[in-house]
Each structure stands twice: as C-alpha cells, then as structure tokens.
Amino acid sequence: DAGVTQSPTHLIKTRGQQVTLRCSPKSGHDTVSWYQQALGQGPQFIFQYYEEEERQRGNFPDRFSGHQFPNYSSELNVNALLLGDSALYLCASSLDRNQPQHFGDGTRLSIL
Amino acid sequence: GQQLNQSPQSMFIQEGEDVSMNCTSSSIFNTWLWYKQDPGEGPVLLIALYKAGELTSNGRLTAQFGITRKDSFLNISASIPSDVGIYFCAGQLTGGSEKLVFGKGTKLTVNP
C-alpha cells in the first residue's frame, strides 16, 4: 500500500519562473492538502482540494494555485517565483473529516 | 501565519532518559496531533487526540489533550537513539481533513 508520493524530490528554479509540483495521495484517500515548510519552521497550510475543488485556503497569494484530478492526484503551481518561495513543499492526504492527514516526503524547491 | 507555541525549542538528552515537551495556543483546538519529522522526510503521525483531558499512548510515547483545549503535552520514556528528530504539535478546530496549524517544533538529540 503506497503512501503519499511527491515529485520531483528536488527542484532548482530562478526568480520569475513558474513551477509545478505533483502529489499522489495514499490509496483510498480523496482529499489533498498542500503545506509550505520554510527552514527551521513548522509547515504552513497553503490550500486543500476535495472533489476537484479548492475547499480551504491559507494566507498565500494568488501566485499559488492548484488542481486536483479525477484520480485524486494533485498539482501545486507557483508563478513568478520569489527568493522567499524557497522551501520544502509537503502534500498530505486524508480520507474524510474523521481521519488524520498523512504526509509525503516533500519537494525541496530552491530559488536562485 | 498562525502558529502554536512549542517548547522547548531543542533538547539534548542521554539515552534512557525521559523527555517532556509541550505546545500551547491562544485559541481553542478540538483536535491535537503530534508528528515526528526526520531529515529529508515528511512528518509522520505519532498520536492524535480528540477529547479534552484525553491521555493516549503509542509505545513509549504518551500525549495528553489539555483540559482548556489550548495545550497538549508529549512525553517519551526511556529514550533511544532513533528518537532523534524534530517533533511537531498540530491543532485543528475540528479534525480529519481540516487544515493543520503547526508549532515550530522541538528538536531532540539523544546521546548514546
């Protein structure tokens, strides 16, 4: 039973570029949440997708957008990258409102 | 963004010692969770707490949901070298798929 998988594991971009990160939820999970974890900090909630719709959103600008596909996998897109976007981006999946979230190992994004 | 207050920030202990760490919030949460994160990996769920006053164990780990619903504690008994890592508390207003609000983490070092 595969857990949450994310790709790529590492990515290097330059300021102003755009990036797409991908997440496959744990088998049977239908809800995907994205978090940003800066160095030395706890994860910060970006947004959550359920039934292909954004259901909740944290305090992140519109440069951060996402998508969920019919197979429940999800993408996180970030436009006009800034140096401050350098972080570990974590995906978490869950089954329903009564089950805790399980995390993938993240994508390490570095902006030069 | 909103974060929980987690203490201590770091701990250096000898193998075999017991460890205590806590997490406080100015807001009420109805679910508290404790995660452990190893370098290069995503957070792994250790314990989930759903009722005020609840005391839950997972092996050598014991966590409590504070009566005020504004705090939680994690204890590790008889520490071993593989306990090394960063421990995060997280709160939710309801539970399950709802967004997680994280603390900044407690970094644990265990000397053999």
Briefly characterize the structure.
Chain A is an all-beta fold. Chain A has strands at about 5, 10-15, 20-25, 30-35, 45-50, 55, 65-70, 75-80, 85-95, 100-105, 105-110. Chain A is globular and about 40 Å long.
Can you offer a commentary on this structure?
The complex is a heterodimer of chains A (112) and B (112). Chain A is built from no helices and eleven strands. With 112 residues, chain A is an all-beta fold. In chain A, strands 2, 4, 5, 6, 9, 10 and 11 form a seven-stranded mixed β-sheet that branches. In chain A, a hairpin with a 7-residue loop joins strand 9 (87-94) and strand 10 (102-103). Chain A is globular. The N and C termini of chain A lie far apart (37 Å). Chain B has 112 residues and is an all-beta fold. In chain B, the strands form two sheets. In chain B, strands 2, 4, 5, 9, 10 and 11 form a six-stranded mixed β-sheet that branches. The interface between A and B is medium-sized, with 30 and 27 residues.
Give the tags.
heterodimer, A: 112 residues, mainly beta, 7-stranded mixed beta sheet, 4-stranded antiparallel beta sheet, 11 strands, B: 112 residues, 6-stranded mixed beta sheet, 5-stranded antiparallel beta sheet
Topology:
The complex is a heterodimer of chains A (112) and B (112).
Chain A: E1 5-7, E2 10-13, E3 19-24, E4 31-37, E5 44-50, E6 53-57, E7 64-68, E8 74-78, E9 87-94, E10 102-103, E11 107-111
Parallel strand pairs in A: 2-11
Antiparallel strand pairs in A: 1-3, 3-8, 4-5, 4-9, 5-6, 7-8, 9-10, 9-11
Chain B: E1 5-7, E2 10-14, E3 19-24, E4 31-37, E5 44-49, E6 55-58, E7 61-65, E8 71-76, E9 85-92, E10 101-102, E11 106-111
Parallel strand pairs in B: 2-11
Antiparallel strand pairs in B: 1-3, 3-8, 4-5, 4-9, 6-7, 7-8, 9-10, 9-11
